[in-house]
Amino acid sequence: MASDLDTSLLRALAAVARHGSINRAAAALGRTQPALSLQLRKLEQHCGQLLLQRSTRGVTLTAAGKTLLPFAERIVSLAEQMLPEPASCAPQRCRVGLIEDVVSRHLPRVLADFAAVRPELKLEAKVAPGRELAAAYRQGELDMLIANPRLCGLEQPPAWSMECPLPWLSAGGAMPDGPELPLVLFAAPCSWRDAMLQALGLAGRPYRVVFESSSLLAVTAALEAGLGVGALLSDMAGDDLRPLPPDSLPALPPVPLALFRQPARDGDPALDTLSRLFFRELSRLPG
After folding, report:
1. pLDDT for 11-69, tens place per residue?
2. Do the bridges between strand 230-231 and strand 168-171 make them parallel or antiparallel, or are there none, so unpaired?
3. Cβ(227)–Cβ(176) under 8 Å?
4. What pLDDT is stored for residue 287 in this prediction?
5. Which residues belong to any copy of the HTH lysR-type domain (predicted)?
């Protein structure tokens, strides 16, 4: 019979995945580095697999660790839902800024789990381009922000960051015929648009813009209609949108995403939970 798994071991794995460092994860959890390392070794022994790859640049998850992470985050979240809230806990609100790409596929599960854990808390979500969100964050209008850190211009270090694949997609994964590549783009300013145009320019690939919009929904609809090719986060691929054949177009750089939170709310359990839930969902992006 399999032995029960201590949820604190799963919490340790999730913290290291978010912070990319055992030392930073230990500080966030209020533990010493040796104590956290011991927990991680216990978890690896329990699973019978290597979960972390250690290097001079930090700690990353192995394939087995990436597979386990969403389950670990989910179990930790469920464990927290079992704990009763203090009777004296006053109503709060949490103001979150999100770029549209995070909202499309990842927000429903985050909202459901967050509402189960903190039903008394009011959640306010502002969806806008990263630069607009960063301005609101600087004015203290947002408690938390998820966006491209290269575009935010924020000097504070993020609570966590990750890189997400950006594949070329088209209806059915078909490569269009013709001398000029029909492009479906986000309206400027957009780092994805810039990356696509730069990659095609460096490769000497002729193109023409057939559709552009600032709306993810509109760009997705144009791609699904077969107007041309474009680039979206990898989880947008499905029955209608599929990646182009390998090497048909120059590879695009991954998209950096980072979560920032106001220093004044460090240690806030509601923001801790929300940060962890978003990290769990975005970590599921296929690579």
Report:
1. 888 888 877 788 877 777 777 788 788 888 888 888 888 888 887 777 888 888 888 88
2. antiparallel
3. no
4. 58
5. 5-62
Tokens of 35: 């104590």
Say what the alpha-carbon torsion angle 130, 136, 137, 142 is, to the nearest 10 degrees: -110
Q: Of 188-192, 199-203, 213-217, where does the model show the most confidence? A: 199-203
pLDDT average, residue stretch 74-83:
70
Which H or E run contains 169?
A: strand 168-171
Residue 145 CB neighbours (<10 A): 27
Q: What is the pLDDT of residue 81?
A: 61
Order of strands across the sheet with 230-231? 230-231, 168-171, 241-243
* Cα 133 to the center of its chain, rounded Å: 16
